[in-house]
Specification:
The complex is a heterodimer of chains A (273) and B (748). With 273 residues, chain A is an alpha/beta fold. Chain A folds into two domains: 177 residues, 3-Layer(aba) Sandwich (Rossmann fold), CATH 3.40.50; 88 residues. Chain A contains twelve helices and nine strands. The radius of gyration of chain A is 21 Å and the shape is elongated. In chain B, helix 14 crosses helix 18. Chain B folds into four domains: 197 residues, no CATH class; 220 residues, no CATH class; 217 residues, Rossmann fold; 43 residues, no CATH class. Chain B has an eight-stranded mixed sheet, with helices on both faces. A three-stranded mixed sheet of chain B has the order 4-6-5, with helices on one face. Chain B is an alpha/beta fold and 748 residues long. The chains are: A alpha/beta (273), B alpha/beta (748). Chains A and B meet through helix 4, strand 3, helix 9 and helix 12 of A and helix 12, helix 13, strand 13 and helix 21 of B.
Amino acid sequence: MSNQDQNIDIEQYKISTEPYYEAMGDEVALYEAAYAARMPVMVKGPTGCGKSRFIEHMAYKLGKPLITVACNEDMTASDLVGRYLLDANGTRWLDGPLTTAARIGAICYLDEIVEARQDTTVVIHPLTDHRRTLPLDKKGELINAHPDFQLVISYNPGYQSMMKDLKQSTKQRFTGLDFDYPDSKVETAIVVKEAGIDEAIAAKLVKIAHTARHLKGHGLDEGISTRLLVYAAILMNNDINAKSACHMALVTPITDDKDIRDTLIHSIDSIFA
Amino acid sequence: MTTEFQEYRDRLKCSFGQLEDVFDDCIKDALRNLSNQGIEDYLSGASMVCMIGRGFEPVLDYLEEMPGIAERLDEDMLKVISQAVWDMSRTPNGNSIPPFMQCLPEASRRLGSSNQMKKFIEIIFEMMHATTGSIHGHHTTFPSPGLPDLLQQIPYLLSQLSLEGLKNWIDYGVRNYNDHPERQRDYFILQSADSKAMLQRERSGTLYMDHERQLDLYLRSMWEQHEYLVPYSLGFDELRKPVPYYDNMGMRIPDVYDDLNGVSGINRYRIALAHMAGHKRWSTRQIADNLSPFQRVAVEILEDSRIEALMLKEYPGMKKYLLALHPAPVEGSCDNEKESCVLHRLAMLSRAILDENHGYQNPKILDCVEQFHAALKDSESSSQEMLQIAISFTAKTRLQSDLSPNIRFEDTIVDYRDDNRHMWVFIEEDDEPEDMQAKPQETDEDKPEGLPPRHYQEWDYNTTSYKPDWVTLYESLHPPGNASDIDKILEKHAALANYLKRILDLLKPQHYVRVRYQEEGSELDLDVAIRSIIDFKSGAQPDPRINMSHKHDGRDIAVLLLMDLSASLNDIPDGCTQSILELSREAVTLLGWSIEQLNDKFAIAGFHSDTRHNVRYHHIKGFSEHWDDNVKSRLAAIEPGYSTRMGAAVRHAAHYLSGQVAEKKLLLILTDGEPADIDISDERILIEDTHKSIEELSAKGIYTHCISLDKKADNYIQDIFGSNGYTVIDHVEKLPEQLPKLFMSLTT
């Protein structure tokens, strides 16, 4: 397979500019330690709180290529591992992203892993224990993972249904990092930095986010994420007035429930006098 | 008779002796308010009222009130009302004339235009005609039982309802209680529960009950608090109007807020809740014993202001609402010599703190405002600090006249603020003798057994509206009988069971199935791929769908079988040897057994009713129960009785079905006749209500199917269940065989 290795352009998976990431605790050190041992890591947390950004940031810091796979419920094991395709000379094998990562020694990041079907998640098992191998049954090949290869998965324990939990046998192959929305100060700093907006306004946005986060479980599946706050701030930077920007970025996307909308609109109204 | 108004007096044809004493005053009033034509109408109208022969009182009412009403609305009222009184006197409802006259002034004030007033009179007359009793449809002979009571309630009703709402409220009472004079009266004096419920529904303004969730969300999101909200009614004429307050039991708020000064009702609720939530967050209790009542009031005002200031720091956008709702007392409008200005002064202080453009000059107030702002400049300050400022303010501004009983209340009531009962601790019990204290009552009532009753609405097709909380439903576990009876049924139908078993095996979900011919799939489908390559190599267009994938194929279905257990189940249909009940039981036994094989979620319940006050819902099998002896024994014990009020039972069944997690939900109804109950004479009502309940279910994603054993069902069943939602089984003796088959065909 050496000829195929040469075909892979590792550089395309490298992250060229440093992604901005504001550390909330000791997660950077923890991750570095886990990477040093090439331990599989799972990051948990609500949507838009910075999980993916953190992984990008770490990949940049460690100087490793990063292959991200967004999982969905139609994803099958072949989508991860690879499959035979037809071409003029018959069939041709094409590596899937997981296989590619194992060959080139990239960090393979499976985003929202619980969305994938359960038979899919099982294929990562041999890569995540002492074996560090990936058998390609159909091709009859056993890949020994590159020494730099590491597997990272993310999942959001909040809104998934009971049906979509990870198996214990999968969970227990990973070390875990818990993520949550950053505290007000850090979150304000993030909004200021990401959107380049005035700190006072950023603080107000964070306050609105907090009011929405209190409603989680009372009609909202997830509170307003940091990402949406940044969107709202960016809209304001483009000369949209505060209330319309909040309405567009913070209210409309997250709910269709009229009572919750009214409550959020009132809180926006109260905070942006 | 020495009146300068002799000319007018002569034109008024009425000879009551008492008239002479009052005529001069009345005509003076009339001359001031009315035109010449108006005077003419006034006098002829009064003559007409005099002629009806109901004594002097209506005449006096007319003379006294009409000039005012005519002036407020329009002079044509003079004729309209005298005519109305005349018309009313031609019916048996003479006793309603005095209350009718009495409600007019208030009605005219509330309604405000002559058109509205005419509509109002029309509504009253409609009600009168509808409720006045008649014999053989010719002569109206019995007075309307509810009319006098209704007229007495008019001022209150109009304060709560729009004219439209009033009409709906009256119509409802007339429709439902026309043949029951006592209940009709209960309704119109606002005694009965549904009378109040209807009133609440028709009410204008922002109702608490419509916004309960929003308010709860508001408290959670912006104040991180969760409180029980308890509404109180402002509708009762109490000496002291209730104000919001909170204690350990929850927050009390009015049941309705009208828009005020441009602040919508919902925002008024929010402000009131925010204020209380602010107290909960920032206030600490103070000892009350050492303070005089005046000092306490001052402390409360300053503490309220502090809460608002802190609230505005957090949510500056609330300021516009506070400014609109907080009264702005006019400086100098209170006369220190004549009345007590304590509250006025404090309201000014509170306004000045809130509104920097207050424009007040009083140096003591300005000084105190400054002190207040200094205290809150960099910190949250504290209740204790407010107490100090308040005491010094009271001391500085104290006046002799403060003690006067004549207190000026105007512009001092801040209605979103609570009564601050939470602020004070009394160290000493009050000094009343001990035996005066109310002892807590022993509440050792017998607890009702089983679950509390549930109330369901019922659809009234006449008005196309729901009757709120109309039906009372009691649910219970069906008492058990002998489980072996059911096993015997299975033995008896062993041949049928065997046959069913074969079908069931075919139905059992095949868990993993291939889906072939996919462009994208998990695996290459070699057969198709080779064919494609052959096509490709031979120059033909290859089929790109060369992959296959797998999918899970499971049954995910929840079924609830609702059995009609009404008395008619005892009948033995023609040509049968068993009663419908026995056949139904056999059918349900086979169905239950079959579904158990399929592992579907399945529940069985039975219902019957004895008027709207008593609908019984029996659980026979729950979703989580297996087909075991407990279930069998309950099924063995089912007994028919009473009638078939289906709508409420369907709604209740839906309540349980919607609690199930399943891809498809099915409600099977097994019945032997149309919905009916002994308190309903119009058979359409329950048919339409059941139809409505089926619509509600389909809105919830629950599919309904009715199995009717009534050969005459064709007349109505389509109206209830739609064209595909039912099966009529003509040969009842086939039911045990048909029911499981039907179920299987419905669910595959």
